[in-house]
Amino acid sequence: MSESRISQFYLSMLTDIRRRDSAGPSGRNLAMQAASDRGRVLFSAAFRRLQSKTQAFPQEWNASVRTRLTHSLEVASIGRYLAEKISEQLFEKGMLGEKNNIETLYRTNAFISFVEVSCLMHDLGNPPFGHFGEASIQEWFAARIEKNKEKFSKYHHSEFTQLYQDFTYFDGNPQGFRMATRLQWNKDEFGYNLTYSQLSATLKYPWTPERIGEVQNGKTVKKSGVFHSEKKILSELQSKLSMNTMSRHPLSYIMEAADDISYCLSDIEDALEKNIVRCYDVVFALRTGLGELNKNRIAMEILNSLPLEHSEDPAWFTAFRTTVTNVLVDRSCQLYIRHHAKIEAGEYFSLLDKSKAAKALLDIIRKFSKEYLYSSAVIRERELVGFQVVTGILDRFGLLLDLSSNDAEQLLINKVQPKATGSALASTLQSFLPRKHIKVYEHTLLEIRKTKNSKKRFELLEWIARAHLIVDYLSGMTDDFAIVTYRRLYGGGANNI
Question: Which of 157, 161, 165, 298 can bridge 209 by disulfide, Cβ–Cβ 3.0-4.6 Å?
């Protein structure tokens, strides 16, 4: 593989093209355009809301445990560190272009920035109560699939089943992509209007839910990164970047590695802070697991960073975290260069899975976390609250899904109260929904009407857009706001009567 070919690869993958031309100053170089993407994300309400979304443990008054925001900032720090080391090697090899060309420097700078911002965005679509919030949404829709399917003619049942996967396979990854490309409605339908490169770098799973369960490059697909509602945007993105269907963007491998490195350490550190696990148990699990990798350099380096004697003082974890981060960043950098041909082909694999020691470390920590952390009373109790709140909100707003297509459109867009029996609360529920989300719903209907659809198919597509509207509202909530909303919906201000 020639360096000139690889230079062309990054020339295609790192671009300032956006879905809509930027309204910013003309003549900005690629590095400036990447910096503009960072600003669009950092100054958004969706990013700020991450400060009140659960990472693993409930938030505390002393702010000692991580939120989705602090986790994202840590991932971004590791991602930038990793991108700097990788881009340095790519630059020295001439893989980003000629060294003495100013455009190569801009491209190198953008490479780093795109990775950093993809890390900042990687949890943007997570609903309240984290992964349990995702599971609650999935279960609520799965339990109603047959009831909802019967609203439509049998001729459209197959399409309904496919589109309904957006909800039965609901996940923060495709919701984050939807948020970036649609829901951040400031003046039009383009969301943040990020560069195609930035959007693509955020996609760990560049496919829609029907791919779940398939085998891709010898690995079973377990998640999707794009809903059917954004499938057209995904195709547009892949076309503009000359990417094959199902291909990952090269920077997404780096973002994923940064998340893996941070995630494997942060939850345990928080558990130690909250005295949910003992230092002894953590050290014992690591020593036992990594000790099986005889004479593996990486394993030995990590083992040497562990305390030699029994101690319940968690101060040792800072040095351990630093060692693990440096070791895994170095290893990820080596693996990125070593497997560049597979990365250029957009294959589905994770960088750290290519390292025996790194994979072993991640597996040990995941197993330990599942056994000691995620089964702890504090998390189980939060799951009970999360399930009640998420399903309770969906139960209330599910009333809107029982309206006819015409009544729903008149209510949501024109604020006309339906006359059908059982819709007394419809206008009240409509008043809760954010204006920008209703704009997305309205624009979706305009797009549907531009194509030739039968009345029955329009009703199906409108219902799917309506369901997305409700989930968009719910998934954008912080944990505390979700609880407050639940109380408003079910308490009805009873204390004020």
Answer: 165
| Same domain (yes/no): 324, 404 | no
Q: Is residue 147, in this structure, part of any structural domain at all? A: no
Q: Which region, left, alpha or beta, applies to residue 299 given φ > 0 means left and ψ of -120 to 50 means alpha?
A: alpha
**Amino acid in the structure at residue 321:** R
The structure tokens listed for 278 are 């003992």
CA pair distance 459, 354, nearest whole angstrom: 47
Q: State whether the Cα torsion 196-197-202-208 is positive or negative.
A: positive
Q: Which of 479, 285, 256, 441 is nearest to 354 (CA)?
A: 256
Question: What residues pair up with 219 in beta bridges, in sequence order?
Answer: 216
If asked whether residues 373 and 428 sit together in one domain, one would say no
Q: What per-residue confidence (pLDDT) applies to 58?
A: 58
Look at residue 391 and tell me if it is in a domain: yes
DSSP characters over 242-273: TPPTTPPPHHHHHHHHHHHHHHHHHHHHHHHH
The residue segments making up the domain with residue 390 are: 379-496
Mark whether 387 and 316 lie in a shared domain.
Answer: no
267 and 357 within one domain:
yes
Task: Please list the ranges in the chain whose pLDDT falls under 70.
Answer: 1-6, 55-65, 309-311, 492-497
What's phi and psi for 94, nearest 5 deg? 75, 15
Among residues 351, 377, 403, the one where a domain terminates is 377
The DSSP 8-state label assigned to residue 219 in this structure reads E
The answer to whether residue 60 is domain-embedded is no
> Distance of CA 184 to CAs 161, 222, 231, 243, 446, Å?
28, 27, 18, 26, 18
What average pLDDT does the structure give for the chain? 90
How much is the pLDDT for 300?
85
Compute the half-sphere exposure of residue 82: CA atoms within 13 Å on the CB side of its CA: 38
Q: What is the number of domains present in the chain? A: 2
What pLDDT was estimated at residue 177? Answer: 97
